[in-house]
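Example for tutorial group B:
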C-alpha cells in the first residue's frame, strides 16, 4: 500500500511539473487570517534597505547581514500587520510581493554564505514537498507560511496577475532582478509593467527574434498564468521591443540558480 501511495504521489508531482505550474497553485488551499490589521504597514524601511544594498539587481548580502537588525524590524512590522479583507487589492499585492522578497533575503542571511538558495535545507529536495521554498519560517498573524505558500496560495491564487512572476525574486541569477525600491500600493501596476518590460527585454534572460525565441523557463513553469486569455506569443509581444511572429520557434534557456550577488 505504501508503495502504491508513493507512486500515485510521484505521478501527480511529475504531472504538476510538466504542466509548468498550471496545477501547482491549485494544490494549495487559500490562506485566511484571523489576526489582521485594518491599516496596511509602511514599506519605507524596506525601501531604504533596497536602495542601499541592491544595485542593478545584484544584492550585497554582506551589508544586509551587517544591518540585519533593520531587516528584522521590517519583518516584525509585516508579521504584526497581516492583510485584512478590507484592504485594497493594491495594498495586498504590494504587501505580499515585498514580504516574499524580504523573507527570501532573510532565509539567505540565515544560512550565509551560500552559493545558491537551493543549497539551503534538505540535500535531497523534492519540489512542492521539502525544497527551500517549502520551509515554514514565515510568521504572519496566526499563520506559519513558506515562500511557496505566498507564491502559490496567495499571489497566484488570489490576484490573477501574471506579472508577479517578474517581481518576486528567488535570489538567483536567472530570476528577474530585485527592484531597488519597495513595491507600493500607489505605483504597483506601473512597477509590475516595468518589471515585465525589463525582464522580457533583458538579453541575458530572454533572446528574442521575430522567428525564433529562447526564453526563460519561467514561461514554461508558469505557462498557464501567461496564457489564460491569450497565447504566450501575445503576452510577450505586449512588452517585447522585438515583435514576435505567431509561428516563431520557442525554446527555453537553462536556469542559473547561482546567488544574485
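The residue assignment follows.
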Amino acid at each position: 500500500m505504501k508503495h502504491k501511495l508513493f507512486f500515485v504521489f510521484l505521478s501527480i508531482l511529475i504531472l504538476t511539473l510538466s504542466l509548468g505550474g498550471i496545477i501547482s497553485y491549485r494544490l494549495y488551499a487559500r490562506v485566511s487570517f484571523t489576526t489582521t490589521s485594518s491599516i496596511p504597514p509602511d514599506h519605507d524601511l524596506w525601501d531604504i534597505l533596497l536602495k542601499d544594498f541592491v544595485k542593478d539587481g545584484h544584492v550585497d548580502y554582506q551589508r544586509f547581514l551587517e544591518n540585519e537588525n533593520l531587516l528584522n524590524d521590517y519583518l516584525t512590522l509585516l508579521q504584526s500587520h497581516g492583510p485584512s479583507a478590507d484592504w485594497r487589492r493594491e495594498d495586498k499585492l504590494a504587501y505580499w510581493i515585498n514580504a516574499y522578497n524580504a523573507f527570501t533575503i532573510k532565509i539567505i542571511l540565515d544560512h550565509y554564505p551560500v552559493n545558491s538558495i537551493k543549497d539551503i535545507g534538505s540535500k535531497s529536495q523534492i519540489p512542492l514537498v521539502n525544497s527551500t521554498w517549502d520551509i515554514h519560517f514565515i510568521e504572519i498573524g496566526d499563520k506559519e507560511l513558506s515562500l511557496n505558500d505566498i507564491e502559490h496560495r496567495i499571489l497566484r491564487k488570489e490576484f490573477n496577475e501574471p506579472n508577479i512572476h517578474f517581481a518576486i525574486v528567488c535570489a538567483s541569477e536567472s530570476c528577474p532582478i530585485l527592484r531597488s525600491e519597495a513595491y507600493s500600493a500607489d505605483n504597483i501596476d506601473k512597477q509590475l509593467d516595468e518589471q515585465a518590460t525589463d525582464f522580457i527585454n533583458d538579453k541575458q534572460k530572454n533572446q528574442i527574434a521575430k522567428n525564433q525565441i529562447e526564453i526563460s523557463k519561467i514561461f514554461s513553469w508558469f505557462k498557464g498564468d501567461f496564457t489564460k486569455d491569450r497565447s504566450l506569443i501575445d503576452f510577450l509581444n505586449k512588452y517585447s521591443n522585438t515583435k514576435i511572429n505567431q509561428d516563431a520557434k520557442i525554446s527555453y534557456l537553462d536556469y542559473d540558480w547561482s546567488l544574485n550577488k
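Residues 89-111 form the longest helix (23 residues). Compare this with the pattern of hydrophobic and polar residues in the output above.
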